[in-house]
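Check out a protein:
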Amino acid sequence: MSCWMPGCPALSMCRGLAALPITCLERAKDLKTRLGILLHKPELGHKTGSSSKLQLGSRQRDTSREVLEWRESFDQLLKSKSGVNAFHTFLKTEFSEENLDFWLACEDFKKTRSKTKLASKANRIFEEFVQSEAPREVNIDHETREITRKNLSGATSACFNEAQAKTRTLMEKDSYPRFLKSASYQDMTKQATSRGTSKRSHT
C-alpha cells in the first residue's frame, strides 16, 4: 500500500515504523513466527490435554483407594501423605494438632545424621513439645517427660522414642476413632466409594 498524498494514513504508519528501533521490529517478527507455528499445530494442545486428563483420572483412583485404606489401621493413615494432612486438619478442630506435629518432628529427627544437628534439634523439639509448660506441650506423663529430659544429655536418634510412642498411642486410641466418625472423613469415603462405583459401571 502506497500513497504520496499529504496526511495519508499509510504514509504516517510507515514513518512510525521507521522510527522504531530495529530490535523492536525483529522481536515483532519473531513473535509473529511463533504465533504462526502454534496456530498451525492445534493437535499439540489436544494431545497435552488428553494426557493431563488421563493422569488426573489415575490420580483420583489412587486417592480414592488411599482414603478407604485409612480406616484399615492407624499405620495406613500415617503412611499416606494426604491422610496425614486430613488427620492434621481434623486435629486442629479439636485443638490437639501438637500431638501429630510432635510425632512428625520425631520422624524427621530420626533421619538426622549429623551429631551436632542431632543435639540442637533434640533441644528444640524438647523445648517446643515436651518440657513442662512448653508452647505446644504434648499430653505425656511426668515419668516419660523426665526420661526424655535425661536422654538429651547424650542425644541419639532414639532419645524421643518413648515420648513419641506414648503420643502415638494416645492419637490411635483417642483421636483416630473420632476422625473416622467425623463428618469430613465420612464425606471423603462417600466420594471415594461413588468414584469406585462409577468406574465399575463404565467398564
DSSP finds ten helices and no strands in the chain.
